[in-house]
Each structure stands twice: as structure tokens, then as C-alpha cells.
TrEMBL record:
UniProt-recorded name of the protein: Nuclear transport factor 2 family protein
Organism lineage string: Bacteria, Bacillati, Bacillota, Clostridia, Eubacteriales
Originating species: Clostridium folliculivorans
Length: 126
């Protein structure tokens, strides 16, 4: 399976919170870093964190860029009750078919800060 398809399949397993399927994506010694919260996980810890989250996720991959064995993805995710909407930018390094490192940056979706609204600068992307 090519890297792009592998990334899309990985995100499908993340969104489905499918712990069995997620186990197949990682090398046993892979390192997962969430830089925004200064956390580093083993694959097992990452799967627990994702699959035991107290609500159901929905999501869609908006962009994937491939540079050799590195995939960069941007994924929009939201909770089923729509109380949270975020974008995750992920740097996924592969060795063959397996993820050896995953560095993610999570950002909350929302409106522009009031000071920029007051200045009437910028415009909506969509």
C-alpha cells in the first residue's frame, strides 16, 4: 500500500477509534509526540488515549504531502456533539509499512480574536 493510502487508512482507524486496526500501523518502538501538551506516548498509550476518549470523533483528511518516507497530513476532527472542533497537523514517518514516529500539533478551531475582528483585517477562508 502506498504511503498516501496508508495515511488515509490510519486516519480512518483513528476516527473510528478502532484499537485493533490501530495496532497494525506502528512499529513496537514508535514514538508519538503531541507537542501542544508536551506529551510523548508509546503506541499502546497512544491507542488508549485515542480509543478511550470519552466521546466519538468524526473527521476528514484535508491534505496530505509526501516527502520520501515522511507524510504530512492535515485533518479536521470534531466530536459527535460538535462541542469541539480541531485541526491536527501530523508528521508521520514510515519505515516500510509501519509508523516509526508521529509528531502532532493540535489546534482548536474558532473565530479570529476580537482585536483582529475590530480592525476588520483578514477574511474567511471558505
Amino acid at each position: 500500500m502506498d504511503i498516501k493510502k496508508r495515511v488515509l487508512s490510519f486516519w480512518e482507524a483513528v476516527i473510528e477509534q478502532n484499537d485493533i486496526k490501530l495496532q497494525t500501523y506502528f512499529e513496537s518502538n514508535a514514538i508519538i509526540n503531541w507537542h501542544n501538551t508536551n506529551e510523548s506516548f508509546t503506541p499502546e498509550e497512544y491507542i488508549i488515549t485515542n480509543c478511550e476518549y470519552p466521546s466519538k470523533w468524526f473527521g476528514e483528511v484535508e491534505r496530505i504531502e509526501i516527502i520520501n518516507d515522511l507524510a504530512i497530513s492535515v485533518t479536521k476532527l470534531w466530536l459527535s456533539d460538535k462541542s469541539i472542533s480541531v485541526h491536527a497537523t501530523s508528521f508521520i514517518r514510515f519505515c516500510g509499512e509501519k509508523i516509526v514516529s508521529l509528531d502532532e500539533y493540535w489546534g482548536d478551531d474558532g473565530t479570529a480574536p476580537q482585536w483582529r475582528q475590530d480592525k476588520k483585517i483578514g477574511k474567511s477562508i471558505k
